Hints:
mainly alpha, Membrane protein, PMP3, transmembrane, transmembrane helix
Amino acid sequence: MRLLIAIVLPWFVFFTIGRPFAGILCLLLQITLIGWLPGAIWAAYAVSQYHTDKKIAQALKR
């Protein structure tokens, strides 16, 4: 679900994963239509890293 949001509203994803400053920067980038694509790619990458970090944290708990 976050990946779909990353494509449609890239700035919002950063707020859902706890990175508000990146969200504000991405919103500024998204305001320009040229920055929409890099913002969406950045958000999708951030979601991927978020899931990877969660898996690593869960593996270290065991």
